[in-house]
Amino acid sequence: MKDIIRTLAAAALCAAPLAFAPAAVAQEKINPTDPQPTCRMRPGTYIHVAELEAYTKKALAEKLLDQQVRDIDIGKANIGIGMVHRGKLEKPSTNSVAEHDQISEVYHIISGSGTLVLGPDIANRQRRPNTMRTMREFNGPGNNGSEVINGTVHQLKAGDVVVIPAGTGHWFTRIDDHIDYLMVRIDPDKITPLKSEAQSLDYLSKPANKSE
Quick one: pLDDT at residue 8? Predict the structure, then answer.
């Protein structure tokens, strides 16, 4: 009976939000020989589809491209959730290759289609200015370039998923009409600031700052 009580108490601590766990009480190890959770009792995060759709509507209304919905500390890394809308593109714009030094990205295409080129060899590589809001708050330091040399070409459509490791150039060379995708940013060095649900709703409630 004592073992059952200890097990239930440990499970309750893991399920509870961090704010309600006493600072001096460590999570009890149920079986010390098993791998232990790295979450450090962090709660899960739920984002309703209506909030994600509100970002797409805001992008269309205010002519925005990339928006960060959340930035979440999951223990060993931060995870960013973004919504991206890109309009029709007949040919790539100048220096439109992007590369991020520390943050990897995952795209899940929601609607539209386009051509994306991936590869680590970037022509005319230039550091992105640290005044850019996207660099400071979304995807960290990195480079732009004029072309991905000998890259892999992917024809993206709704439902597709793309994984882009940090250091890999990514370059939209054509977008047929538009492309909308959900972005997952993996930030193991925690270089981007956290963004909560309250901050997200506050951002959606007023026009975006386009000065940066």
Answer: 40
pTM above 0.85, yes or no: no
Tens of pLDDT, residue by residue over 161-188, are 999 999 999 999 999 999 999 999 999 9
Q: In 172-201, which positions are buried (b, 16+ CB within 10 angstroms) versus exposed (e)?
A: bbbbeeebbbbbebbbeeeebeebeeeebe
Dihedral pair phi/psi, residue 13, rounded to 5°? -65, -40
Query: Token pair of 17, please?
Result: 């939000």
> What digits encode the pLDDT tens for the residues 136-163?
999 999 999 999 999 999 999 999 999 9
Strand 147-148 relative to strand 97-100, pairing:
unpaired
Q: Look at residue 57 and give its three-state secondary structure.
A: helix
In sequence order, the 6+-apart residues with CB closer than 8 A to the CB of 93 are none
Q: How many CA atoms does the CB half-sphere of 10 hold within 13 Å?
A: 14
For 101, phi then psi, to 5°, come to -70, -40
